[in-house]
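Table S5 (text form). Sequence records supplied for joint modeling of the two-component complex.
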Amino acid sequence: MEAYLRYGSALVRKAERILRNRDDARDVVQALFVELLQRGETSFELPYLYRAVTNRCLNLLRDRSTHARLLKHSDAALVLPARTNCEDRVIELDLLFKLSHALDAEQLELLVYRYVDDFSQEEIAEVMGKSRKTIGKYLAAVETVVAGIAASEEGAP
Amino acid sequence: MNRCIAQPLSYLVLERRRLNELSVADRRAVDDHLDVCHTCRAYYAQTAEVIELLPLPQVLPRSPQVRAAPRFGFAFAGLAVAAAALLVLVVHAPSPVGPGLEPPASRMHVRGGDLALGLVRMGSRGELLAPTHFAVGDRFKAQITCPPTQLGSVQIVVYQRGRAFFPVAPLPLERCGNQLSVPGAFAFDGQDPALVCAVFDDGGTLDRRSLTDQKSLPKHSVCEQVLPAGVQTSP
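The corresponding structure-token record, covering 392 residues in total, follows.
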């Protein structure tokens, strides 16, 4: 499939920014294209595939049974740190796990675009099909949750 | 924290620049930024790597799903013969469903989103195959989709030869989402069609005894039919 060869590397990089390991990233991208083939779909654009990969990775993070394995195989050196921070924190895998149970699906998706993929608010609005205003509200809510987690960690013994 | 001189160029923009998918104006703007921002230039350099991908198996597009139909109650028992005849025309195989009753569809809308069941079929050599059929040595995994508001648990039930099988443990739904894998795999044997159903409860515990008869599947059930290899589905 032409799209797999064309976009595969970009999508694996995208998945590994979330999952922090290449093997799982490759699996996610392969499974996505298998599903698309089964549906008979052959024509795609990169933003659409980015969103599909994001949601598949987030499904893995929400699955508590995968946490230990992903953490064990995570390689922080695999990807460069994001250039956009949230409440002075870089969104790493362990924080993503916590957030995956504290945020709803759309908020979590938005968090990844903003603080893992360095999307601008306009890009997020376009990819998620929301207004810029809505994205601004979601971001404020996400930052509040991240700040709450940071505060609780600071208060922990 | 790596600092960009202004708004960082997103990975999507950088990848699209690498793939030459930007408009002339956008490409010029990106190139101007990269000329002066060494941080984004380092990120752009990453996009040059060609990553070895897993081989894509030969996959056949799924055949059309068996459509949901209103279930016939006892009051409509007289229609059973006609419905069974119709079913024979739709599927060239004995159906596991029984006369007068078609299985629930593989997707249904509920409050907050959809409930859906998908199957992943792996052949004896590890290759992915169309999950519409089964053969000896194939392993199947169930993937469920449910909205975040869905509570309770999901039970996978397989109906074949008039019997119910429970191949994997019930999965508590701590957090729903798209295409969640149900832990555990299962296989089929024999030459009879099978019906795989995901039965969602709404908070209570599902009693397996209540699921032994597929005619009394709970409302929130989604099913996929799987045929023995060589049996054709209708076009």
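Note: Chain A touches chain B through 51 residues (CB under 8 Å).
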